[in-house]
Amino acid sequence: MFGKKKQVTNNASLKRVNHAPSIISEDMRLTGSIISQGEVQLDGRIDGDIKATHLVIGTTGVVEGIVEATSVIVKGKIIGSLNASEVNIKNNAHVHGDIFHDTLSIEAGAIIEGNLKQRFEKESLTLINDESKPVSDVKPLINEDDIGLSFVNKQASNKS
């Protein structure tokens, strides 16, 4: 209106300049999603999703939604799924939902109601011996004269 240009905000301007954590204090209650490229200290309540690099949920902190982070320390309560590389659940924490993790530590006294699933499990089958034997070297499990015997009876007949 007075001749100033409107400033356009983009995602590049959201990069962290300082390294101080973002703090949501005990008397705060937020509804909506939070995205942070740094550390978030949550002592209040969030009804929504959180995506952060590092997240610390304090003893009075409550999240009702999906939590995604590189590392998470839970001292409070999460109602929803948790997806992080490093998960550290302290002794008075409550997690009501599935936990997807690379590394997980749970202190005695923590309450978890949900499934624990490691994110990057690699199933690989390895051969014990690559060399296959010729068919002539393989012993048959059943001889033609033992066809009428059960497995237990075959073992008994082999001992005598």
From TrEMBL:
Pfam families: Bactofilin
Source organism superkingdom: Bacteria
Family label: Belongs to the bactofilin family.
Matching InterPro entries: BacA/B (IPR007607)
Name the UniProt record assigns to this protein: Polymer-forming cytoskeletal
